[in-house]
Write a structure and sequence with these properties.
By secondary structure, the protein is an alpha+beta fold. The chain has four helices and five strands. The chain has a single domain, classed as Alpha-Beta Plaits. The structure holds flavin-adenine dinucleotide.
Length: 146
């Protein structure tokens, strides 16, 4: 058992421009910084973007996860950051992902829409468990496709 290993799940409202070139560049910046910091901090996880929202899972030592979430909450590239879950875990769901990004492909979008349909596409109606399971399934599929 990994003492102190925790999983945090949140969602937020995207404040990035709708312009797809600028959105892609902004997400690339966020991912590059996330992967550098998360590798340093022993954090793994995945980030999903869809319908104007981000949803993210962070897993790692509690202190590091909390410090990353503090920085993330203060980032004005998104807002209305809502914590859904922060729980101790025995093992990681994303051991190979310093920060995976899913949701851009048509297949991923359709999957998220399927879950979102019952919630009016609003992740505020999704639980931390639902978001965690969705992101885990999508990253497993991406790993299988590589
Ligand atoms: P620096 O990169 O040196 O940044 C200093 C300050 O400038 C920070 O306040 C930063 O927020 C701000 N900043 C930097 N670039 C921009 C920009 N282009 N536009 C606006 N403000 C900017 N960070 C992680 O470490 N791990 C994650 O998993 C992670 N996930 C994220 C998910 C989302 C949806 C978003 C929006 C951000 C995420 N970030 C993540 C980034 C995080 O919010 C901080 O920007 C980052 O952790 C700060 O890193 P740093 O302390 O090295 O500071």
């Amino acid at each position: 058992m990994n003492q102190g290993l925790h999983r945090l799940v949140y969602y937020s409202r995207n404040h990035l421009s709708d312009d797809s070139t600028s959105f892609t560049a902004n997400v690339a910046d966020i991912l590059a910084k996330s992967r550098t910091n998360n590798t340093r901090d022993q954090i793994t996880g995945a980030l999903l973007f869809n319908a104007g929202c981000f949803a993210q899972v962070l897993e790692g030592p509690l202190e590091n996860v909390e410090a990353a979430f503090e920085r993330i909450q203060q980032d004005d590239r998104h807002g209305d950051v809502s914590l859904l879950a922060l729980d101790p875990i025995e093992s990681r769901s994303f051991p190979n992902w310093a920060m995976g990004f899913v949701g851009t492909s048509a297949t991923d979008a359709a999957r998220f829409a399927g879950i979102g349909a019952s919630s009016g596409f609003d992740p505020s109606y999704l639980s931390g468990d639902q978001i965690h399971t969705l992101l885990r399934d999508l990253t497993i599929e991406e790993e299988a496709a590589v």
